Amino acid sequence: MTSSATTRAEKFVVRFPNGMRGEVAQAAGLSHRSMNAEIIARLQHSLSNWPATLPHGETAIPDGNEEAYLLERFRRLPAGKQQALLALLD
């Protein structure tokens, strides 16, 4: 990317979970790319395959089942995350 193209590129700050930055750096090294190029390549791959992974003609949660879905997801959370979520709702 040229210097002028770099200054025109959209910028977005990403917060990685602990350890992920190292994993991205390692993957970038193995691919002989910068970390930025590695992230962009993986996002482009993911987004280009996105429609194939979605259910066609239906929502991810069938209408009328939202409450049951949320309750099931809540029950699968560790106790600490359940408490944190409840605190947010108060």
TrEMBL record:
Residue intervals of the Arc-like DNA binding domain: 9-48
Origin: domain of life: Bacteria
Bilayer-crossing regions: none
Pfam families in the record: Arc
InterPro entries: Arc_DNA-bd_dom, Arc_rbn_hlx_hlx, Ribbon_hlx_hlx
Name of the molecule in the record: Alginate biosynthesis transcriptional activator
Organism: Alcanivorax jadensis T9
